[in-house]
Amino acid sequence: MYETILVDVADDVATITLNRPDRLNAWTGQMHHELDAAISACNEDPAVGAMVVTGAGRGFCAGADIRDNFKNRLEGEERQTSSNWIELVRSSKPMIAAVNGPAVGVGVTMMLPMDVIIASKQAKFGLAFVKMGVTPELASSHFLVQRVGFGRASEMCLTGRLYDGAEAFSLGLADRLAEHDDLIAEAQALAREMAANPSPHLRWVKELLTKNGSETDIAAVQRREGEVLAKAFASAEHAEAVDAFLNKRAPVFKRTAD
Q: Does the global pTM surpass 0.85?
């Protein structure tokens, strides 16, 4: 079905693997469209509660494939697709990046809006746009500052240097650091933990974090929270959770296509 990615669904989790290992999974327009299609399909599949994104072979994603993709980037393809990617990731079921090796340029920016980034100790991260005579994209000038702060984001983007997994974790770029051989298992375990919660509510929480994370109007923050909380209180999932609590049993949430 796909030529540049692999999708495996098991135990409530879809593992999406960038699959161009001979090119360190370099990003192409085709890969972008296949990822878009796969994530959208997972969002509609009741068997999927959360997603893990990783890379085949020794790399996560070595950035845009200059050989195949540079002309499209110069012509503005990224400007046309960037807002769609951010909207897709932030409106999706939980998404975890499991960074198994080098991630450079778009290999980093594509994961910044995901919910959790787990780095292998063999991972490397580079925002090397300036070295190629271009500038950050995919809203990374927003999400990178949110993740690591203004000074660290400035250092990363203005030097274009590589950071290993431990450095990325210490700087806050990665949320967890894993032994390389444990990376996928740890990411899938965290994804299953998220997937056990009611799917609509997971996406409502993501919506609140997206809209309120850098909001300075506290009244607007509370208004959004109140609107979503009203939906949550009226939901069948909330009723099930309360009944389970009162009867000292585990809740059973029915997952439906969203």
A: yes
Cα–Cα distance, 49 to 192 (Å, whole number): 7
Terminal-residue alpha carbon distance, the chain: 22
Structure tokens at 141: 């000038």
pLDDT digits (tens, 9 = 90+) for 139-174: 999 999 999 999 999 999 999 999 999 999 999 999
Q: Of 114, 116, 117, 119, which is closest to residue 166 (Cα–Cα)?
A: 119
Strands 50-55 and 102-104: unpaired
- The DSSP code for 100 is -
CA distance 122 to 100: 7
Element (H, E) at 53: strand 50-55
DSSP 120-179: ETT-EEE--GGGGT----TTHHHHHHHHH-HHHHHHHHHH--EEEHHHHHHHTSSSEEE-
